[in-house]
């Protein structure tokens, strides 16, 4: 991964957030022999890319939570970061503990509704149990409605229909085209075709107006969803929410208020340094970069930032991050999928490999197999 460097004891990199970006930065710094502390509010890395499969298949969730301590031992600290003091170079935890840093890598990512994201701060085994509980709720329901037809929503609808073809599955989306706007029209069209082929009912260009009165993820008889147009009501017995992802900015908003973009992410330069701060980097979903928010990109950012920490310590020039072309893959159940990689359309053959058996095993021909050293 990289040659070890020798540094004096004033060097300590604090990485805030142990998602795809944070663990990649930690692994890279470890390989350089640079002292670091990885801080996350939870006790385990959540492989949320596989969270939707874990919602329909019992026994899968346990593969998606990986204990930080097992991998990073004393280089990991569990705690919620509530403040950053740039003058004193201290990170403050909710417990009031202060952690000194010489360099900071901010990787707090994004949050959103369960099951796509896991938001609670509870022990790993309880988190796994919540996914197992959701599998049972989905099994109980006869008619499942997925609200939100972005990339998460289309994957969710396809996962439910693949494992439970006898269930009625409806996807309600506020726009006409499904999946992410960065994707080619042909990819978005294929997503629609796959869903229709699987028997998912699509309600497009419609918003649910009473979502805040519905308890998601719990099977109940006769849940009524009101639609904005035509006063139509959809009756179902389970609602899964795939809307509303936000950048997790609470840890840095007071320190970097003036460096935040409208969505709460941090403005960075081409070296991924937060504007005006040579020893602070932002990577992953919380970095303001014109490209899709993806685990794959988060890992690349992290390796660039860790390399730049090393290069700055040994007097080498810094590495530039060039935003990649869109490389997005959508798994539409275990036998179907579609995506695009640097402008190329990818069909279902590729997707059968992707996410099929174990998480990330053959996600791409590049370096996506190794998510976390175990
Ligand atoms: C359902 C779903 C499927 C997806 N599928 C794919 C896919 O197939 N391929 C792909 O490339 N991308 C996929 N993505 C996108 C991908 O998950 C994100 O881009 C990726 O998680 C970003 O990684 P990150 O490390 O920046 O942030 P996150 O994964 O959000 O991790 C942030 C971490 O920071 C921690 N944290 C936040 N605030 C604090 C704080 N104040 N103190 C301490 N810790 C904190 C959190 O606990 C978390 O562990 C998918 C997303 C979803 C929701």
Task: Tell me what the structure shows.
Keywords: FAD, Flavoprotein, Oxidoreductase. Belongs to the FAD-dependent oxidoreductase family. Putative FAD-dependent oxidoreductase. Pfam families: Pyr_redox_2. Its cofactor is 6-hydroxy-FAD. Helices cover 25% and strands 22% of the residues. The protein has 8 helices and 23 strands. The radius of gyration is 21 Å and the shape is elongated. The longest helix has 20 residues, at 295-314. Helix 5 (151-163) runs parallel beside helix 6. The chain is of the alpha/beta class. A hairpin with a 4-residue loop joins strand 6 and strand 7. The protein has a domain at 13-114 and 246-324 and 363-368: FAD/NAD(P)-binding domain, CATH 3.50.50.60. The protein starts with 12 loop residues before the first strand and ends in a 21-residue tail after the last helix. The protein has helices spanning 20-32, 51-56, 68-72, 124-140, 151-163, 185-198, 295-314, 348-353; strands spanning 13-16, 36-40, 44-46, 65-67, 76-78, 81-85, 90-93, 98-100, 103-106, 110-111, 143-147, 168-172, 201-203, 223-226, 233-236, 238-241, 246-247, 266-267, 280-282, 287-288, 327-331, 337-341, 344-346. The site of flavin-adenine dinucleotide (FAD) has 35 residues, from helix 1, strand 2, helix 2 and helix 7.
Bound molecules: flavin-adenine dinucleotide
Biggest β-sheet description: 5 strands, parallel
Largest beta sheet: strand ordering: 5-2-1-9-19
How many β-strand stretches? 23
Distance between the termini: 16 Å
Instruction: Tell me, rounded to a whole number, the average pLDDT.
Output: 91
Structural class designation: alpha/beta
- Tally of alpha and pi helices: 8
Give the C-level CATH assignment of the domain at 13-114 and 246-324 and 363-368. Alpha Beta
List low-confidence stretches. Answer: 352-374
Strand content: 15-25%
Helix content: 25-40%
- Say what the CATH topology of the domain at 13-114 and 246-324 and 363-368 is: FAD/NAD(P)-binding domain
Cα-atom radius of gyration: 21 Å
């Amino acid at each position: 991964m990289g040659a070890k460097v020798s540094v004096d004891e004033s060097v300590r990199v604090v990485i805030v957030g142990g998602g795809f970006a944070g663990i990649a930065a930690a692994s890279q710094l470890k390989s350089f022999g640079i002292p670091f502390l990885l801080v996350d509010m939870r006790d385990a890395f959540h492989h949320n890319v596989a969270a939707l499969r874990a919602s329909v298949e019992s026994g899968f969730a346990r593969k998606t939570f990986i204990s930080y301590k097992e991998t990073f031992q004393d280089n990991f600290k569990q705690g919620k970061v509530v403040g950053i003091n740039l003058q004193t170079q201290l990170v403050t935890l909710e417990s009031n503990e202060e952690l000194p840093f010489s360099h900071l890598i901010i990787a707090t990512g994004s949050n959103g509704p369960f099951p796509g994201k896991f938001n609670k701060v509870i022990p790993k085994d309880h988190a796994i149990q919540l996914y197992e509980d959701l599998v049972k709720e989905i099994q109980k329901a006869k008619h499942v409605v997925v609200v939100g037809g972005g990339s998460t929503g289309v994957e969710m609808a396809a996962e439910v229909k693949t494992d439970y073809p006898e269930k009625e599955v409806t996807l309600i989306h506020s726009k006409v085209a499904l999946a992410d706007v960065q994707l080619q029209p042909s990819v978005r069209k294929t997503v629609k075709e796959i869903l229709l082929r699987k028997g998912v009912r699509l309600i497009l260009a419609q918003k649910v107006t009473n979502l805040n009165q519905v308890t998601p993820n719990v099977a109940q008889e006769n849940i009524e969803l009101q639609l904005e147009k035509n006063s139509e009501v959809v009756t179902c017995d389970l609602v899964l929410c795939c809307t509303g992802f936000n950048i997790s900015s609470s840890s840095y908003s007071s320190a970097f208020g003036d460096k935040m973009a409208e969505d709460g992410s941090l403005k960075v330069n081409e070296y991924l340094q937060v504007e005006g701060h040579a020893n602070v980097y932002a990577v992953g979903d919380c970095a303001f970069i014109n490209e899709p928010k993806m685990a794959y990109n988060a890992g690349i950012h992290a390796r660039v930032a860790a390399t730049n920490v090393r290069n700055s310590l040994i007097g080498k020039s810094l590495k530039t991050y060039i935003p990649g072309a869109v490389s997005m893959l959508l798994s539409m159940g275990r036998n179907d999928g579609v995506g695009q990689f640097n402008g190329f359309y990818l069909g279902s053959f590729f997707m059968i490999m992707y996410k099929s058996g174990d998480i990330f095993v053959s996600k791409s021909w590049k370096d996506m197999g190794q998510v976390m050293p175990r």
